[in-house]
Amino acid sequence: MSDFFEKSDLSRSEAENIISDTLQKCDDGELYLENSKSESILLDDNKIKNSSYNSDLGFGFRAISDEVVAYSHSNEISKNSLKQSSENLKSTLKSIKGTYNHEIPKSNKKYYENINPIEQKSLNEKIKILNEVNNYLRSKDDSIKQVTANFLGEQKSVEIIRSGGETLTDVRPLIRFNVSVMLEKNGRKETGVYGVGGRQSYDSYLKDDKWKSVCDEALRIASVNLESKPAPAGEMKVVLGPGWPAILIHEAVGHGLEGDFNRKKTSAFHNLMGQKVASEGVTIVDDGTIDNRRGSLTIDDEGTPTEKTVLIENGILKNFMQDRLNARLMKTKSTGSGRRENYRHIVLPRMRNTMMLSGNQTQDEMIKAVDKGIFAVSFGGGQVDITSGKFVFNCTEAYEIVNGKIGSPIKGATLIGDGPSILKEVSMVGNDMMMDPGIGTCGKAGQGVPVGVAQPSILINKMTVGGTKL
Amino acid sequence: MVKDLEFLEKKASYCLGLAKKLGATESCVIVNNSVSETVNFRNKKLDESNRSDDLGINITTYIGKKKSSISSSNLLDDNLNILIEKCIETTKNTPEDEFNSLPDKDLLAKEVKDLNLYDDTHIENDQKIDYLKKLESAASNDKKIINTESSFTQNKSNFILANTEGFCDGYKTSSFTASSVTVAKDEKSMERDYEYSSKCFLEDLDDAEELGKQAADQTIRKLSPKKISSEKIAIIFDKRIAKGMLSTFASAISSSAISRGTSFLKEKVNQKIFPDTINVLDKPDILKGLGSRNFDSEGVKTETLKLVEKGILKHYLIDTYNGKKLKLKSNGRCGGTSNLYFENGNVSFKDLLNSKSKSLYITETIGHGSNIVTGDYSVGATGFLVENGEFKYPINEITIAGNFKDMFQNITLANDLEFKYATNSPTMMIEGMVVAGK
After folding, report:
1. What integer pLDDT is reported at residue A7 of this predicted model?
2. CB distance B73–A388 less than 8 Å?
3. Integer Cα distance of B56 and B157 in angstroms
4. Where in chain B are all domains bearing CATH 3.30.2290.10?
5. Is B95 part of the contact surface with chain A (CB cutoff 8 Å)?
6. In sequence order, which residues have a C-beta less than 8 Å from that of residue B327 and are 6 or more positions away?
7. What is the mean pLDDT of the segment spanning A171-195?
8. pLDDT at A96 exceeding the cut of 90
């Protein structure tokens, strides 16, 4: 754990006094301190292209009165700097008379260990594995023209000091290992990308040649795409495979169920609480408490312990995801979903691991039920307009389905749908729920945070597939 | 206030000196400071104030052909000591790469012109609030507008770039940015749209009422959209979307994509990739330009490049490392383009709308559907159906798709270019794309 005041002219008790003084008539607020260390090692084009290390230190001071948030951040943890921030906050929040809410729930549960993954493996070992990845892939297939592999490792220490001096801390490890392969055959080029990661040591994901399966998967996707033909254009049935395709859930309903958009009534879901928003059998949760997952958090960035929040239960909308600010204004409690990319940003209600739970049908039954449609297995990413509810996600591995059978692979295409109605079009829910491999980052208001998704195979009756074949 | 050059220079030379002492044969350092103050309004009331003071340092050290880098926001000397030591250690342990080096000395920028990128004006939060009040009042005039969010940011930055070849330069830049996001609602639908203005000088910023009104108008006209059938149809891209085509073009001609072989424009230099009528320029010395600069992120001077002349690709965007790999000289594009734009076409906006009996006018796309390896393009879109030059009705929940190789060959540009962003395009029509809808 970092001692943020060790090399500063500001002592902890002085900081506590400034915090309490600044926040005395506010409804909420805190000083958020963060120290993160991260590394990136990249192999590309047969060479180690980049080995870099970043150390980032700073604080963000927040004061909230009613709906108004005043925020100030700086890299300099010093008496002067904190006092200047305090003045900034006070000048925004003039003549206020709130009562500070000291209440914050407590939990002793931890969902990952206090480790620094960067230090647990030497640079030479990491470089050795990247070179092995390159050699392994290039020896497997002559048509491989490019291999990119990288390690990203991070340890982030956070400390939250509230008015009155209450202090909450967390140390968060995170790693990611990615492989990208480009194949060229008969003048055609295609890529395949795969990766793994989470809040554990590199070795948990790499040892016993586990890295080989990541390489194999990237190569498999690229090989499939090399045979792909133009994707169809128009409305049709879509079967989604388990795991990573749950980006659909994240985009279609996840963002629309974040507290801020619903308090502001700008989400297409804001007036649907308690109503049926999905087919029977569809249950969706947002869970920050799964051990070592990329989207898991012991406490959120306001200090609230995370939880498993039921968003949709058997088709009925049950809860929004809340941070402290939106929860207070909507007269409910925080779900431990208050997150920020780092100390430079304000807290927003965000997703953690968003999951659709298993039903009892099989993927086979779904494929057989489709005359004409597509079977989408892997995705690159998605986006949503939470106001109109329209969302997209981009396939990176998909096949056509003809008369109940999986046919040829099709080129990457964008799928578009309507968030509030898409889950009512889910006609089968599989028994094969799977977590994603642990590489997702969600963007909102310019802030990226690590997240996870999970789902079983599902059959959607009608979605628009954005191909080029009419 | 933003830190002065003297402070940044002192940090930079400290780092270069220490790196040399610890065994670096060459090194390069960038120190920057950026101070931003933002005020946000929502529904005519103060919603958020935000002040940020960001320091950053980035050091790259070389030992022969070995290279590594570190970055940090903590500029205290004892932290820099630890980091530079770590950087040298990592450099020693990173394998050699024959193409690693600082830029050739004769390519470094010699003179730094004053491009008029810094406005000393300081706008107090109370003045920002006045601007936003006017903006939001104009934005919420129509009853259909149910939510307004707007924001005003003043940013002042300063940086220094120094390397062991004796280069040491930097300058201040400023920006003033206002934006308005509005939500409109009717019985059938709820829609969101925005307007935005960003300038180096406060005096050039768009009028608050104009901006608010524009955002509201653009949102209201999207209400009660329809979905259309799948078909092949001419697509007209609003300027704010058309510029995205240029960004994709820029990533496809970056020397890194070219040297790695991962671009659909590899080996296309001196070939025709656009129609005769198309010229693309990257002009770094536009006064007050949002992308203007004297040198790139390695210190190499940047001069105007006519990237595409009469449809023919003339240059890649080259940095030192990939240049050496491709046996080409850096043209000062490490970190990307400066002020990139399509020159005006020959037809007016009106004539472009009129040129087909039926077309689609696209105002927003969503999704990350540009693949620069294959050139495939597929994104979600919203816009309007245009018949005989008139906007008929709004459209959403469709996708548009094609391949850039074909799309580029079928571009027609209007003559309405303006410099609103760093990358700019006139309104653009592309024929032969496929819309997927019902």
Report:
1. 84
2. no
3. 11
4. 5-220
5. yes
6. none
7. 96
8. no
- Collect all residues of chain A within an 8 Å Cβ-Cβ radius of residue B53: 73-76, 81
- Angle at CA of residue B222, ends B351 and B348, nearest 5°: 10
What pairing do the DSSP bridges indicate for beta strands B423-424 and B340-342? parallel
**Distance (Å, whole) CA B170 – CA B186:** 52
Looking at residue A375, what is its pLDDT? 97
CB-count burial class (<10 Å; 0-12, 13-18, 19+) for B102: buried
Please report the pLDDT score of residue A401 as a whole number: 97
- Kindly tell me if the per-residue pLDDT of B158 is higher than 80: yes
**Residue listed under structure tokens 């450099």:** B91
Residue with tokens 């005003």: B152
Q: Are strands B305-309 and B190-199 parallel, antiparallel or unpaired?
A: unpaired
Q: Are B66 and B92 in contact (CB under 8 A)?
A: yes
Lowest mean pLDDT among A84-98, A164-178, A233-247, A295-309: A84-98
Spatial CB neighbours of B328, under 8 Å, sequence gap ≥ 6: B255, B316, B318
Domain B5-220 class, CATH top level: alpha beta
Reported as a pLDDT band with limits 50, 70 and 90, residue A1 is low
Fold type of domain A123-226: PmbA/TldD fold (3.30.2290)
> Residue B405's closest CA among B370, B368, B360, B436?
B370
Query: Measured between CB atoms, which of A344, A391, A470 is closest to B434?
Result: A470
Report which residue type is found at B284.
Answer: P
Domain extent listing, chain A: 123-226, 233-466
Is the Cβ of A464 closer than 8 Å to some Cβ of chain B? yes
Tell me if A349 sits within 8 A of A341, measured CB to CB: no
Task: Give the pLDDT confidence of A327-365 residue by residue, as tens digits.
Answer: 999 999 999 999 999 999 999 999 999 999 999 999 999
A380 and B CB contact within 8 Å = yes
Asked if residues A385 and B363 have their Cβ atoms less than 8 Å apart, the reply is no
Residue B108, Cβ density class (10 Å: 0-12 exposed, 13-18 middle, ≥19 buried): buried
Burial B54-87 (b: 16+ CB within 10 A, else e): bbbbbbbbbbeebbbbbbbbbbbeebbeebbeeb
Tell me if A366 sits within 8 A of A457, measured CB to CB: yes
Minimal-distance CA residue of chain B relative to A131: B95
* Secondary structure element (H or E) that encloses residue A145, with its range: strand A144-162
Predicted ipTM > 0.95: no
**pLDDT value of residue A295:** 98
C-alpha span between A426 and A163 (Å, rounded): 47
> How is residue B28 written in tokens?
């390069």
Residue B138 is inside which H or E element, if any?
Answer: helix B125-139
For A149-199, give the DSSP string: EEEEEEEEEEEEEETTS-EEEEEEEEEEEEEEEEEEETTEEEEEEEEEEES
DSSP A232: B
B174, containing H or E segment: strand B172-185
The set of residues, in sequence order, having a beta carbon less than 8 Å from that of B223 and lying 6+ positions away, is: B144, B184, B185, B186, B188, B189, B191, B394
Query: Within the 244-303 window of chain A, which residues sit less than 8 Å (CB to CB) from chain B?
Result: 264-266, 268
User: Which tens digits make up the pLDDT trace of B186-221?
Assistant: 999 999 999 999 999 999 999 999 999 999 999 999
Contact B436 A383 (CB under 8 A): no
Predicted pLDDT of residue A95: 81
Taking the C-alpha atoms of residue B381 and residue B368, their distance in angstroms, rounded to an integer, is 12
Q: pLDDT per residue over B301-353, tens digit each?
A: 999 999 999 999 999 999 999 999 999 999 999 999 999 999 999 999 999 99
Closest CA to B193 of B220, B224, B219: B219
Task: For residue A48, give the chain B residue with the closest CA.
Answer: B95
Round to whole Å and give the CA distance between A82 and A100.
Answer: 20
